[in-house]
Amino acid sequence: MTTPPGTFALRDATEADLPAIVAIYNSTIASRMVTADLEPVSVEARRPWFLAHQTPTRPLWVASDANGTVCAWLSFDTFFPRAAYDGTAMIGLYVDAAHRRRGLGRYLLQQAINRAPALGLHTVLGYIFGHNEPSLQLFADHGFVRWGHLPRIAVLDGVERDLIIVGRRVAA
After folding, report:
1. Per-residue pLDDT reduced to its tens digit, 52-98
2. Beta-carbon count within 10 A of 65 CB
3. Of 9, 161, 159, 141, which is closest to residue 70 (Cα–Cα)?
4. pTM, 2 dp
């Protein structure tokens, strides 16, 4: 894989990366901006998800620093488990708090767009809470448009939240 901005390496995730991946994910839960999980998840609970990404068509990537510390990750998740939808995937993108606002998320998203056709994908999606303006802007900056709006579908600490589905074609 290639090198993102700064001194990071982009590579396929290994099982040894799973604790760091889970820690980055769990660090976003309290903000109520990024995920619908309300409580931290365990490494064991995420193991089946990790194993599902050990395939050439639904990879899980990590960006690590010069010391090998995982600073961000990106996954391609199955949109819907029926064969006609195999060319569509949802992108999950999480950056460690200490590495946000440095272009790492932008780099990872651009790499996902660039490499998606080689994964057999023609369409990529993002599922983003309506109040998560930074993520909505990130995806919009990369050519994603709003394809769906699910009003008040999630309840986070008693507050109903919208889910916005953004999409982009990556192959003709």
Report:
1. 999 999 999 999 998 999 999 999 999 999 999 999 999 999 999 99
2. 16
3. 9
4. 0.92
